[in-house]
Design a protein that fits this description.
With 392 residues, the chain is α/β, with parallel strands linked by helices. It has 10 helices and 16 strands. Strand 9 and strand 10 form a beta hairpin. Helix 1 packs parallel to helix 6. The N and C termini lie far apart (70 Å). The mean pLDDT is 93. The structure holds flavin-adenine dinucleotide.
């Protein structure tokens, strides 16, 4: 007899582990399947909203950032102090494992194995086949609902919604480097570098993680050497000789997919649904939210048997965040085009209104509605910089 679950969650990153945790807490019979064995390459920056909404304990925050330094192609530096809080840094080596453990403690069954195939049994229930970690024969389990949270190259998405193309991606690469004790180093500052030499269409970063830091870059341009770029950047910042612990990369999807469900019993979440904020590449908070919304949609399907409930995950997400994603997409297209526009973009970041709105939007995922004039001012300043009417 095949084991039967209410929900099988494929992928135990921030989206899948959150979905499994929520469903298990609500009393559902849940399997969390994760292939394990690879640390997710990630800068690890999360906003206070994520810490609050998903009860992330202090012990998972390895650094608290209180300033972002934005650096232009000409070397102009703009410091953007974080007001009323901090940006948290998590170490994905421990954070993801902790999320999976939390889901298991709350009742999800956690198995390590590689998802292989989605099929159907004679009753029409979804059958998930996976190869257990360490090898051996494939195992088949079935469920009334499947959540595909298996990342940017989701196999669940490819098999469940085959007529949909995978999302466009930026490829991001970073090196995890040991923080030297002797260095002139601010452990509470993030550096964000906008320079075509280091990324022709995205940005590069140095993010502190306490004992280590992440130095990385991203680009969608074919043939651009991300490793070469980081080698050069480390040379420029005097970090060449510092001890490197890991070198790794992964795709970042840049646009939410049009469909997150198969109109029957599968719903996608997180990177698998293409949900990462354009321009910033922020994905952890949105993945956790996507996991939560997928869990709610799955629970509604279980309760009502109505497959249309699955579409609510995307509908709610896009209602709350679609506009911001759209604006960020336009920003990325305009400002990350060449060094001339990047220079203007960094100059614009000096503006106190821009800083306030940026932090408010990032930290709490809300636009400041109480100050509409600031939005109007920023819009016109933005336009002036874009058209070159403001002096760089
Ligand atoms: C270099 C880099 C830097 C980034 N920096 C930041 C940042 O600073 N802040 C931020 O918010 N976001 C950042 N992101 C984006 C962020 O990492 C992702 O958006 C986020 O991890 C998405 O979570 P997820 O759970 O949807 O997918 P993932 O984190 O990719 O998790 C997918 C899970 O599925 C599992 N899986 C995959 N295939 C299978 C399979 N066949 N069978 C079983 N399990 C499977 C994997 O083991 C993994 O655990 C960065 C991304 C990259 C690449």
């Amino acid at each position: 007899m095949m084991e039967t679950y209410d929900v099988i969650v494929v992928g135990g990153g921030p989206s899948g582990a959150t979905a499994a945790d929520d469903l298990a807490r609500a009393g559902h019979h849940v399997l969390l399947l994760d292939k394990a064995g690879r640390i997710k390459p990630c800068g690890g920056a999360i906003p206070p909203r994520a810490i609050r909404d998903f009860d992330i304990p202090d012990s998972q925050i390895v650094a608290r950032v209180n300033c972002a330094r934005i650096i232009s192609p000409k070397g102009r530096e703009v410091d953007m102090p974080v007001e009323n809080g901090f940006v948290g840094m998590v170490d994905r080596e421990h954070f993801d494992e902790w999320l999976r453990e939390r889901a298991a403690e709350n009742g999800a069954e956690w198995r390590r194995g590689n998802f292989e195939q989605l099929g159907r049994d004679s009753e029409g229930l979804a059958v998930v086949e996976y190869t257990p970690k360490g090898g051996g024969e494939r195992v088949a389990v079935r469920a009334r609902c499947v959540i595909g949270a298996d990342g940017a190259r989701s196999q669940v998405a490819a098999q469940a919604i085959p007529d949909q193309k995978p999302p466009k991606c930026v490829f991001a690469y970073h090196e995890i480097v040991e923080t030297p004790r002797s260095a002139d180093w601010n452990p509470r500052r993030c550096d964000v570098i906008y320079e075509g030499k280091h990324s022709p269409d995205f940005y590069s970063w140095v993010f502190p993680h306490g004992e280590t830091f992440s130095i990385g870059t991203g680009s969608a341009r074919k043939g651009f050497s991300l490793r070469g770029s980081i080698g050069d950047l480390r040379g420029r910042l005097g970090m060449t000789g510092w001890r490197t612990l890991r070198k790794e990369g992964a795709p970042i999807p840049m646009k939410p997919l049009k469909r997150w469900d198969n109109k029957r019993d599968v719903v996608l979440a997180g990177d698998a649904a293409g949900v990462v904020a354009p321009a910033s590449g922020e994905g952890i908070y949105y993945a956790m939210l996507g996991g939560r919304l997928a869990a709610v949609a799955a629970a509604k399907l279980l309760e009502t048997g109505d497959a249309r409930q699955l579409a609510t995950a995307r509908a709610i997400f896009m209602k709350d965040h679609g506009k911001v994603f759209w604006i960020l997409g336009i920003m990325q297209t305009f400002w990350y085009r060449n060094d001339w526009t990047r220079e203007r973009f960094v100059k614009m970041c000096r503006d106190p209104d821009v800083q306030r709105l940026t932090w408010e939007g990032y930290m709490n995922k809300t636009l400041v509605r109480r100050d509409p004039l600031a939005h109007v001012k920023v819009f016109f300043k933005d336009l002036a910089h874009l058209l070159g009417l403001a002096r760089a």
